[in-house]
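Backbone Fold Data
Goal — fold tokens
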Amino acid sequence: MAAIGYHPGERAAQAFAGETHRAEHLGRSIRDTIPPVAADFLAQRQLFVVGAEDRSGRMWTTVLAGEPGFLAVPDEHTVTVAAVPHPEDPLRAVLDGSEGGPTQVGTIALEPATRRRMRLNGLLDGRTSDGWVLRAEQVFSNCPKYIQKRRPVPASPTTRPGPARRSAELTTAQRLRVGTADTFFVATAGPDGRADASHRGGFPGFVETLSPTTLRWREYPGNGAYMTLGNVEVNPCAGLVLPDWESGDLLLLTGEAHTDWQEQAVTFTLTEAVELPGALPMRWSEPEFSPANPPLG
């Protein structure tokens, strides 16, 4: 049950935010098994967000996509994932087994068309001929807040992945992309190394680019668990991914995050950016913005 309970960083973040009571209520719904309704949900998904550390201890987040069925649940403890990242994705070697060793993984299964999502965190537990196996340790649903509705474009082009572009700071084009994004995903890890992946959404401009190496966003009210900010309290390492829904490109960022509790905002300092052209095989429609998105400013 230790994997299900909150760690001291999460407890501290919940207290800072005045959400201890709500967090206790949510905690009772966190499982270490995959119920049938969650298994059915996973089997129909086409997007899967994955966060983990690389072997140097840096956090990364990436996005995998496939036709319904690329995620499967053979038993209540196990998810098989028939997909691996772009060849130059920092998590490719972690997930395809070439770096070896156990890996804690945080994931989100997302259905943008209905604003549904669920979190499933656990341990990379082996590889298959076309992917990898995840053993569940934390399973729970999230609220639909701040998810922009999108639908897969039926005639999605198939684009071969292009070579990665790496840098220690954001280019002007990348800063524009961050500043106009309505969605990103963030991965963090707790004091015991357990990884978690989370969603952030808002109107374009909700993420500010303060400099080529510094981002900032306000933390909007969520489910009250404060898993991301709780992890940051004890381990500032964080990984972000910003998908380009139209082109299939991914922009991965790794660095450190720090919370300003007075402003309810997070500042992220970049260590490395990796842009992956054509990383996703699918394309998505223009967004229908969430009615929960707060106004900017």
Summary: The first helix runs from residue 8 to 17. The chain has one domain: 8-276. The chain has a mean pLDDT of 92.
